[in-house]
């Protein structure tokens, strides 16, 4: 995107940053650090971030909005994922929950590249204490963002 693409848009603080599409992936869960002083995002990156926050939030954990989030992480922490089929089934339900919540807050004035069409599970890897998902987020404009979720039971 060019600077002109940000004109007239509402933008979010970029929280999920630091991932490199190829090679080593380094994630930092900070809003800013010594090298970078806050970044913003719009478009499909903003949509992917909204979807990730919704998907990873445990349903019922937001005190002022009990229907926000999904049941996916609750099932993950409860140890219910033994097979890829378990994960895929839980993802299917969570994708509907996350999608319904995001669509409920979207308006017709939002750009189509920031509005959810669907999220698609691309791959699953199950290792001891770890589940890794690859998910493709698709906007109403048809733009996509692939995200990898390495979910671990350990802190």
Provide a descriptive summary of the structure in words:
Helices cover 27% and strands 23% of the residues. By secondary structure, it is of the alpha+beta class. The chain has a three-stranded antiparallel β-sheet. Strands 1-2 form a two-stranded antiparallel sheet. Strand 4 and strand 5 (144-152) form a beta hairpin. The longest helix has 22 residues, at 84-105. It starts with 11 loop residues before the first strand and ends with a strand.
List the keywords.
155 residues; 3 helices; three-stranded antiparallel sheet; alpha+beta; globular
Radius of gyration: 16 Å
**Range of helix content:** 25-40%
Count of DSSP strands:
5
Low-confidence parts: 19-29
Query: What proportion strand?
Result: 15-25%
